[in-house]
Design brief:
By secondary structure, the chain is of the alpha/beta class. The protein has 20 helices and 13 strands. Helix 12 (314-324) links the parallel strand 8 and strand 9. The longest helix is centred in the C-terminal third of the chain and has 46 residues, at 487-532.
Length: 533
């Protein structure tokens, strides 16, 4: 009897916990993802879909068709179809013309800004803003890539802003939540992300870290202001600098186990691997059959969502084909319908492949990748070694980190040869240290108190419960650069020091003059006395 009563109490206890953990009221969340890069949208959409599955009403405004066609529950997608062609042209030029690294960065950023402006001024967007106003949304979920201009949507709906960022935060993200700068760590885009401990390594990273705050952002700021002021006129909306202070959270697709180790403010939340399904979906029948029958192992090859076959030169595609077609493994190769480099018995071309589900298959032996952060993270999660052919953006830095950590090897695209690619592939395939190292990391990467999805739901609802959670905001958010660097304090102390030194010098001069006059007076009296004698 007592045991039965105890079971009833335990049952009520579990019910209470579940009800207490559930949101008391479904929130209305607006997702705005103006990135022309589909790989970015996949990360942002995973955050939005997670919140929809938790019971919230999510409306997503994006540039392309829904990247989560299986999304259910309360998930609405509004497609704007802007900027994809111009972005593809930019990518193609960057991949093959090899401009200097700073030119690549500016080309990509201008592409993102152009697309963002087209998105905000799109007729569908204008109509949406006309018919929706304050009170229609409780949170703005903003897919962030220098998209400060879109924070005006938070001002329009008078709601807190939550950012989704696809890689380890850069300076532009850190400053929005007042995260402290770590000068000895290299910038993710340009430097050594591990932060070497040698003097020269730290010197290099220190100089590199000046690039974004002192060159990139000052150049981009006028563009951001122009887009913001055009779409959110000053007579009706607060200035951009004030709107930036309305950021409550940043979700970053990163985890501390990837490095570098650094301090973070409470409002910067790591959700590395948010796009990875905790339980893989069943593979399409033809793909499942190929992988299940590949007992000796199979290879997966994809250059991501941004790179199309047409972006590569025929010379490079021929090199890649010649190497891969000679491998004694089945190769799933993500490639468009057009411009395929050749036919081989071991190669299966597909225009689209479910990457996360494929990498989860136990027979995948190697992942040949472009080194985008999403792809690298999925390989790390599933314990698959990599050979990278990085092309632009954060890809070279990502693959440098992969190589340094022992998860695979990287080859340079511009100097790519059959020999260099084949050597890297054979080394990773035949040396078990790469598989062991990445599988060891996989266990470390997965070991967390909450899954990325649980983390997203908890902290978003935390912001909702506490009306923007302003108590989490760092005081640094409300300080300008000079105050953050304490230049005003240093100047004040230097002024005091200068005044003290000046007074000291003045006193010394007065004492010297007085002593000199005293000596002159004494000498004069002595001379007069001598004359009288």
């Amino acid at each position: 009897m007592f045991a039965r009563f105890s079971n009833v109490l335990i049952g009520f206890g579990f019910c209470y916990i579940i009800l207490a953990a559930a949101p008391t009221q479904a929130a209305h969340i607006l997702g705005f993802f103006a990135s022309p890069s589909k790989s970015h949208i996949i990360i942002h959409a995973a955050v939005a879909d997670t919140l929809a599955r938790a019971g919230h009403n999510v409306t997503v405004i994006g540039l392309s068709k829904n990247v989560l066609p299986s999304a259910k529950y309360n998930y609405i997608q509004i497609d704007l179809d802007e900027g994809e062609k111009s972005h593809q042209s930019t990518v193609s030029n960057i991949v093959n013309k090899s401009p200097a690294f700073y030119e690549k960065i500016f080309h990509i950023m201008i592409s993102f800004l152009h697309t963002g402006n087209s998105t905000l001024s799109h007729p569908k967007m204008r109509e949406f803003l006309r018919t929706h106003s304050e009170g229609n949304f409780d949170i703005l979920l903003l897919g962030y890539v220098l998209s400060d201009y879109a924070m005006g949507l938070g001002a329009h709906f008078r709601c807190p802003i939550v950012l989704s960022f696809v890689i380890q935060p850069t300076y532009s993200v850190h400053r929005l939540v007042g995260n402290p700068a770590e000068k000895f760590h290299g910038s993710l885009m340009f430097g050594n992300p591990k932060g070497p401990e040698t003097f020269w390594g730290r010197l290099e990273n220190f100089v590199i870290n000046l690039f974004e705050p002192w060159i990139i952002l000052p150049v981009m700021e006028p563009y951001l202001l122009k887009i913001y002021n055009y779409n959110f006129p000053p007579d009706r909306y607060p200035p951009l600098e004030e709107v930036r202070k309305n950021v409550s959270l940043v979700f970053t697709n990163h985890h501390f186990s990837q490095g570098p180790i650094r301090p973070n403010v409470p409002s910067l939340i790591e959700i590395g691997g948010i796009q990875i399904k905790e339980k893989p979906d069943p593979l399409p029948a033809d793909i499942a059959k190929i992988l299940d029958e590949s007992k000796e192992g199979a290879i997966y090859f994809s250059l991501g969502t941004n790179i199309q076959g047409s972006h590569l030169t025929k010379e490079k595609t021929k090199i890649i084909f010649n190497v891969i077609s000679k491998l004694p493994y089945k190769v799933l190769w993500k490639w468009g319908e057009q411009d395929r480099p050749g036919q081989a018995k071991n190669i299966i071309y597909k225009e689209w492949l479910p990457q996360d589900d494929i990498l989860a298959h136990p027979n995948i032996k190697l992942f040949i990748t472009h080194g985008g952060m999403g792809s690298v993270v999925e390989a790390q999660y599933h314990g698959v070694p990599m050979v990278g052919i990085p092309l632009f953006g954060d890809q070279p830095s990502n693959m440098a980190n992969v190589e340094r950590s022992g998860y695979g090897l990287s080859v340079d695209y511009l100097t790519l040869t059959e020999e260099s690619l084949n050597t890297a592939i054979q080394e990773v395939l035949n040396n078990p240290k790469y598989t062991k190292t990445v599988r060891d990391f996989s266990r470390l990467y997965r070991d967390r108190p909450m899954t990325p999805r649980q983390t997203v739901v908890y902290w978003t609802e935390y912001v909702l419960r506490h009306n923007g959670a302003k108590h989490m905001q760092s005081p640094a958010v409300h300080m300008n650069r000079w105050q953050l660097m304490s230049l005003d304090v240093i100047g004040f102390l230097l002024a005091i020091l200068f005044a003290v030194v000046a007074v000291f010098v003045k006193i010394c001069k007065l004492l010297c003059c007085r002593d000199k006059k005293g000596k002159e007076t004494k000498l004069s009296k002595t001379k007069q006395k001598n004359k009288l004698q």
